[in-house]
Amino acid sequence: MAYTIEETEIDNIKAIHLKKGDTIVMEVLPENGAMLNKLLFQVGDSWLETIDGHETYDQVESDPAFKSAVLFPYPNRLENGTYRYEGREYTFPVEEKFQGNSIHGFVGKEAFKVLEMEANDDGGTAKVAYYYSGDRNYYPFAFGLVITYTYAEDRLDVKFDMENRGNGHMPIGFGWHPYLTINQKPLSSLKMKLPFVSQVVLNGENLPTGEVKDFMDYEEPNDIGDVEFDDCFKLIMQDNSILYCPEEKVGVAMEASKECLFLQVFTPSERKSIAIEPMNCNINALNNQEGLMDLERGSFYHVNCAIRVVDQEEFEELLEE
Asked: Residues of the chain whose pLDDT is less than 70?
């Protein structure tokens, strides 16, 4: 059965729908940060829900959880919203009033333009773009950000292309904030595997102290149980992160290209999903410079991520390693 793709509007929210028959297998909301709000894969005769999106469209615009948001021009937290670059000081709006931090940049709330949509027998592609003129005093650096979602049966590839469109250098950090789920199963019934990582030690404001410590709890697949995460990890070795449901004998993997040197893991209160967030830089990177990119005028920076199905055979091989 061939796929179809269309742009539609529901409750004043514009959406791109990739469908297989009558089933929406991918939903992207271009004017709300180009967020990925739905992602289903067919496993046998059933559909596997892998993204915990918004249940109703009236939740989209407030979105305090930053579900599947693109985190740019920095991910995670920025201390007091303030940073210095090339001898000048800049201050972002402070959203986390109780901790005094800015969080996740601003692209996740912006309207993207649809550049291309295409469907075929194997899946489909949606390409969207956001062009920023540099008109905000806290980030006066013009850029372009093009996101390409490519769906193919048991895998979604996401390509992020960033361009410096200004007159000088620009500092950039990048992250992506998908909430992964296995059909909304409670986290207590799932297992997780992370790459080889060290844990970034945080202070009371969730900012790095400059120290890291060993973290081996999920080098092999392990029960999530009632563990709570709001933690940053530095990759020692590039590898996939995997969420797996033993009951349904299926899981999902989060892949990220070599530019992503850090990983944030977060458990929301409802505990039916877990955010596994690839980042190219550390928390507060506009200040501590860890992983921060200094992009020259006219140059590009590329990050690739993917979400794919993990079957029982692949998971059992991990247990045997």
From this structure: 321
